[in-house]
Specification:
two-stranded antiparallel ribbon; binds heme C; elongated; single chain; 338 residues
């Protein structure tokens, strides 16, 4: 190695080390929690009150036992646990979503609470001064969550804004109930219920005689869809319908030596994805399904004297490998017999 070359290598190494240490210290800095002032200003604007200030959960709730259960659940939840500064994650407390609370507790003193209690009254805060979350436009509701759940922090949200749900004005809180209990994680068993509230026609499909076992808890909407947005057709998890299906039905994937033409490229040619009145989720029952594209046929056995030729209707009794096969039929061509 020549001197010039050596110097170049050292230079490159030096740059790399400087870059890496800058990068790593940068990461460390990002993990620190710090007040996010512009966001607070923004929140105050959403609340419509620039004169309100953050007072902290302690001030909000120490005297107000009405919300004790709510607070207990919240403190036990993943979001509440982040209140520990050492976690390095953004701090979440009541005011992160409901907005600054100073106006709500204005004039509430320990003396007033005690006096009210004597008269058997629970002192109420002036909750009308909070952000009216329920009546905000859906995009603004979502922003309350998205200021922390950015696409980087919550990976499955990276297609949220482009997704049909965001476009149609569905917001996070239509699906996620923040105050249902301490466990915020979406349980698989609860997913279908989340969706059926709005998708009544899909609910009906899953009650048809042939259906994917979603109600039975063996398949979930999220096996095929990403409800938080996807760039694929119908918010599917995979780029094509076929890929969505063959994730579980791998034996139908092919390629086979004898393919059923390009039919099987889209399973919807013959199947409904959710449910159907016809066996095997078929769009049309056999033989009518086959007769849409083929003429039926008779087979007569010439060896039997006086044999009657029959019109066969149970096509898949003989053409049992309808999705394709690697084995030729007796005649050497592919008729999906085996
Ligand atoms: C992550 C955001 C978020 C946090 C943090 C949060 N809330 Fe809420 N809260 C909501 C949303 C959204 C609603 C209304 C929609 C709903 O019921 O799902 C709500 C509703 C409420 C309601 C009921 C109001 C009504 O109209 O029925 C109360 C009371 C409440 N929150 C108190 C609290 C308290 C106390 C805390 C802190 C321990 C807290 N919230 C923390 C998002 C949050
Ligand atoms: C101030 C920041 C902040 C806001 C605002 C916020 N979150 Fe969170 N959220 C967190 C943090 C931090 C966690 C815990 C870490 C994690 O799981 O990503 C969390 C966790 C969650 C979880 C549970 C994740 C799990 O795996 O258990 C759900 C669901 C959730 N948030 C939904 C919401 C919804 C819906 C909203 C809006 C109403 C919202 N969050 C608003 C910071 C926030
Ligand atoms: C149409 C219903 C729906 C909407 C709208 C929705 N989510 Fe979800 N979300 C789900 C489901 C279902 C899961 C379960 C994870 C999965 O299998 O994809 C989930 C998962 C999550 C998780 C991971 C933790 C968990 O619960 O498993 C977070 C965090 C979250 N959602 C936040 C949000 C935020 C923030 C928004 C709004 C920008 C939002 N979601 C909008 C249905 C929804
Ligand atoms: C608050 C109502 C609401 C809830 C809850 C809801 N959706 Fe939707 N969904 C809509 C609306 C509105 C549209 C857009 C109009 C349409 O296509 O029906 C939509 C569209 C869709 C589409 C079609 C997208 C397209 O490209 O045509 C799918 C798939 C879907 N939702 C799946 C789900 C799943 C899975 C869940 C449960 C995790 C769910 N939805 C929960 C309201 C909802
Ligand atoms: C086995 C995979 C699979 C499962 C499980 C599944 N879907 Fe679908 N879904 C699809 C496919 C594929 C389409 C596209 C259908 C079409 O284009 O005809 C679709 C379409 C939709 C649509 C768009 C409306 C329509 O008929 O075109 C909605 C809404 C929907 N699904 C909601 C749901 C909900 C809610 C659940 C759970 C209760 C669910 N899906 C479970 C595969 C699935
Ligand atoms: C998450 C895994 C999964 C995915 C993805 C999936 N399936 Fe299924 N499928 C199942 C299970 C489980 C059954 C029920 C099998 C049983 O009852 O033994 C089933 C059954 C079927 C049946 C037979 C139904 C009956 O009435 O006997 C057909 C046809 C079918 N699936 C087609 C499809 C098509 C088409 C797709 C894509 C749109 C698809 N599957 C995607 C898991 C899946
Ligand atoms: C040309 C029509 C056609 C196409 C295209 C098609 N299927 Fe089928 N499928 C059928 C018929 C017919 C049956 C019933 C077979 C029987 O009666 O034995 C069936 C049955 C099934 C079954 C249940 C019985 C079994 O063999 O496991 C599954 C699962 C299935 N198909 C998955 C798929 C998938 C996945 C695709 C897309 C890759 C697909 N099908 C494409 C016609 C088709
Ligand atoms: C959407 C149209 C379509 C449907 C539905 C369909 N097929 Fe086919 N099928 C084709 C095409 C196209 C070919 C390949 C072209 C050809 O050779 O005729 C083919 C090929 C075949 C072959 C092999 C013919 C040969 O000469 O190699 C058989 C056997 C067959 N189909 C049986 C069936 C049966 C049984 C069903 C019903 C379960 C069915 N098909 C449903 C379009 C269809
Ligand atoms: C009793 C068994 C049997 C039944 C039932 C049957 N087939 Fe066939 N099919 C055959 C045989 C055998 C061949 C000839 C292929 C060979 O030589 O291997 C054939 C060939 C075919 C071919 C390719 C030759 C041609 O005529 O173009 C098609 C397409 C076909 N059948 C469609 C159907 C359809 C559609 C049905 C239902 C209406 C059906 N078959 C029912 C046994 C059957």
């Amino acid at each position: 190695m020549g001197g010039a070359q050596k110097r170049a290598v050292f230079k490159a190494l030096f740059c790399l080390i400087v870059f890496l240490s800058l990068f790593l210290s940068g990461c460390e800095a990002l993990r620190q929690s710090r007040p996010i002032l512009p966001m607070r200003q923004y929140e105050k604007m959403v609340a419509g009150r620039l004169d309100a200030d953050y007072v902290g959960t302690k001030t909000c709730l120490s005297a107000c036992h009405y919300h004790d259960q709510l607070k207990k659940d919240f403190d036990a939840s993943t979001m509440g646990v982040q209140i520990q500064r050492s976690s390095g994650l953004p701090l979440v407390n009541c005011e992160s979503c409901h907005g600054p609370g100073s106006l709500a507790i204005k004039g509430i003193t320990p003396e007033k609470v005690a006096a009210d209690a004597k008269r058997g009254i629970q002192t109420a805060c002036n909750y009308k001064t909070f952000i009216d979350i329920k009546h905000l436009p859906p995009q603004a509701q979502a922003l309350i969550c998205l200021k922390c759940h950015t696409a980087n922090a919550t990976f499955n949200l990276h297609n949220w804004n482009a997704g049909p749900h965001a476009q149609a004005g569905v917001s996070c809180i239509d699906c996620h109930k923040v105050h249902n209990g301490p466990d915020l994680k979406t349980m698989q068993r609860d997913i279908a219920g989340m969706c059926f509230k709005c998708h009544k026609e899909v609910k009906a499909e899953f009650s048809l005689p042939s259906h994917h076992p979603v109600n039975e808890g063996r398949v979930f909407c999220t096996d095929c869809h990403d409800p938080m947005g996807s760039i694929n057709e119908k918010m599917l998890r995979r780029p094509t319908v076929k890929q969505t299906c063959t994730r579980c039905h791998g034996e139908k994937e092919g390629p086979f030596a004898f393919e059923h033409s390009e039919n099987t490229e889209d399973c919807r040619t013959c199947h409904r994805p959710h449910g159907s009145v016809n066996a095997n989720l078929l769009v049309v029952p056999v033989p009518f399904l086959c007769l849409q594209c083929h003429a039926g046929h008779r087979i007569s056995s010439s060896s039997a004297p006086g044999s009657v030729s029959t019109f066969y209707t149970r096509c898949t009794d003989c053409h049992s490998q309808i999705h394709g096969t690697d084995l030729p039929s007796a005649s050497g061509s592919g008729f999906f017999h085996r």
